[in-house]
Write a structure and sequence with these properties.
Low-confidence stretches: none
Strand order of the largest sheet: 7-6-3-4-5-2-1-8
Distance between the termini: 89 Å
Radius of gyration: 30 Å
Strand content: 25-35%
Number of helices: 4
Number of domains: 2
Oligomer: single chain
CATH class of the largest domain: Mainly Beta
Mean pLDDT: 84
Structural class: alpha+beta
CATH topology of the largest domain: Immunoglobulin-like
Helix content: 25-40%
Length: 180
């Protein structure tokens, strides 16, 4: 037993003589608080650099406009409107082909809104121009369109609206057949 004590004392003396940076327990004690500080700084940077789009300033006005928007949806249903949409996620090219069961006035321009469900900074609005006398419209969104849950709205001068919710992964094209 004497030898065991001596071996233990030698080990303790070696640890005392050893510089503190060579002791693994010191680094273990320093690591977790340092990790918490780094994670806190990263969290602050993310919060400062991203947009909080959950609350709108004019929520009351938007609430009053809901009946008007619902009438646009009803008008599209009455006309029997449908749209085939092809979005190239790499180039941003948008092609919309409109069809209707009843005669409707084809405008020279329609508006397309691409709305991300959680990241309002990714939302885009573009105007598509009519191709000749057809019911085809062409325009561009800012590429690339990221993966996620989206809502696509097609509007014609506050007369009618078509909309479709969809989820996209990393695809080259988004193809939608929208009906009211």
């Amino acid at each position: 037993m004497v030898q065991f004590r001596g071996a233990k004392m030698d080990r303790e003396e070696q640890l005392k003589k050893q510089h503190w940076t060579r002791n693994p327990m010191v680094w273990l004690v320093i690591f977790f608080p340092a990790l918490a500080v780094v994670a806190g700084i990263i969290t602050i940077l993310i919060a400062a650099n991203t947009e909080d789009g959950l609350v709108v300033d004019d929520y009351y006005k938007q609430g009053l406009q809901i009946n008007q928007v619902l009438s646009h949806d009803k008008k599209a249903k009455t006309l029997g409107l449908s749209a085939f949409v092809d979005v190239n996620t790499q180039t941003g090219q948008v092609l919309v082909s409109l069809n209707a069961k009843q005669a409707f006035e084809a405008h020279d321009e329609i508006t397309v809104k691409l709305i991300h469900r959680t990241r309002s900074g990714q939302d885009q609005i573009t105007v598509l121009s009519r191709k000749g006398n057809s019911n085809d419209y062409l325009g561009y969104l800012k590429p690339p369109i990221i993966a996620g849950r989206w809502t696509l709205q097609i509007l014609a001068q506050q007369e009618w609206r078509l909309k479709q919710n969809f989820t996209t992964k990393n695809a080259d094209h988004i193809l939608l057949n929208i009906t009211p």
